[in-house]
Design goal:
This protein is α/β, with parallel strands linked by helices. A ten-stranded mixed beta sheet has the order 3-4-5-6-9-10-11-12-13-14, covered by helices on one side. The chain has a two-stranded antiparallel sheet with strand order 1-2. α1 packs across α2.
Length: 364
């Protein structure tokens, strides 16, 4: 099935370079080893485990694989090199921001967040972003390219290697719009949750979208019990369009309807992310409209005090106002929490570290 509109294309057919073995699912890797390399299929399972469970960064580490096969693998494929070029740790040690560089020189960022319930990693799905949200640093220079499934995985793997700590939760909420790289993101999730890999529960994975309705509908058909988070940020089209230009294409009520369909299909409660921006979407009127929009729905609102971005004109909602907004939503029967801010002292907003790195490099 292909779901199309004038901007997005989502397809069940996945097309990758035939030698991108790190992005292959287990069945594909077994087929590749047997049909193209003349090896026993079980070698595919061994290699899959080395890449996704043991996190090998080179074929030479695979000591239960015959040397002759390792040499053949090196001839036609590779484990892409992903380097940590910068790392910032917050004063409270609860957040670590990473800047990763890929083989083509492109850089992206990821964040490790340490919580009482375990370690969570926020990954990027694209280099840059084309959504144009007016409070976000990721989209300032536009979209460069999509990330492959393994390039998304490598952010989680790189952080595990660096910290020697287990990751239990993953949020696809970094740079990029996951629905704009749909096939690769779905494959990333399937690889990350595979029992022969990291075996992270799909229920511990959150996919965040700024409201790409066809992608939300397609996600509901995947059979993956991930949490869908919708970056709403406005209770009506006029308010939201100031912050999220995609509102011109997908209106607020259409997005909420798609979220309702996701809940009906999966039974998974949808989270609405709402970044409070001073003087834009934090009024009593906005609070009442949001209450009316979501009242009676099995959903959750995550209020966020926006991380300030120097290139943007918007400023975070005041702490007292965030609390007032929360209390009013609760009185109107809306399930709501205020998201704990981590890493503000290391510029934790999406795209800030990459932006500062690129600006510094261009000035050299």
């Amino acid at each position: 099935m292909i779901v199309t509109d004038s901007t997005f294309v989502f397809s069940e057919k996945n097309e990758y370079k035939s030698r991108d073995i790190c992005s292959m699912e287990l069945s594909e890797l077994k087929t590749y080893l047997s049909e193209e390399m003349g090896e026993k299929p079980f070698r595919g399972q061994q290699i899959f485990q080395w890449i996704h469970k043991r996190l090998a960064s080179d074929f030479s580490e695979m000591d239960n694989i015959p040397l002759s096969l390792r040499d053949k693998l090196k001839e036609g494929s590779s484990i892409p090199e992903v380097s940590i070029i910068k790392k910032l740790e917050s004063n409270d040690k609860k957040a670590v921001k990473y800047l990763f560089r890929f083989e083509d020189g492109n850089v992206i960022e990821s964040v490790l967040m340490r919580y009482d319930y375990g370690n969570s990693v926020c990954v990027s799905s694209q280099v840059g972003c084309r959504m144009g949200c007016s409070f976000c640093a990721s989209t300032i220079d536009g979209l460069v390219r999509n990330l492959s499934p393994y390039e998304i995985l490598s952010q989680v793997y790189g952080i595990i290697r660096d910290t020697k700590e287990r990751v239990s939760h993953v949020v696809i909420m970094g740079s990029g719009e996951p629905m704009d790289n749909y096939d690769n993101v779905i494959r990333f999730i399937r690889l990350l949750t595979h029992k022969e890999g990291q075996d992270i529960s799909a229920r511990n994975i959150t996919l965040s979208t700024c409201g790409v309705v066809p992608g939300m509908d397609e996600l509901g058909k995947e059979g993956l019990p991930v949490t869908l988070a919708v970056s709403l940020h406005g209770p009506d089209d006029i308010t939201r369009e100031r912050l999220v230009p995609l509102t011109k294409k997908y209106h607020v009520r259409d997005i909420v309807s798609a979220a309702d369909r996701y809940f009906e299909k999966t039974g998974r409660r949808v989270t609405y992310e709402y970044s409070l921006v001073d003087g834009v979407n934090d009024s009593d009127e906005c609070c009442m409209k949001l209450s009316g929009l979501l009242r009676g729905k099995n959903c959750h609102v995550n209020l966020i005090s926006m991380n300030p971005v120097k290139e943007r004109k918007w400023r975070p909602g005041k702490a007292s106002r965030v609390l007032e907004f929360k209390n009013k939503l609760e009185k109107n029967g809306i399930h709501v929490t205020i998201r704990a801010s981590v890493g503000r002292d290391i510029d934790a907003a999406c795209g800030q570290l990459r932006k500062s790195y690129l600006d510094g490099r261009s000035s050299e």
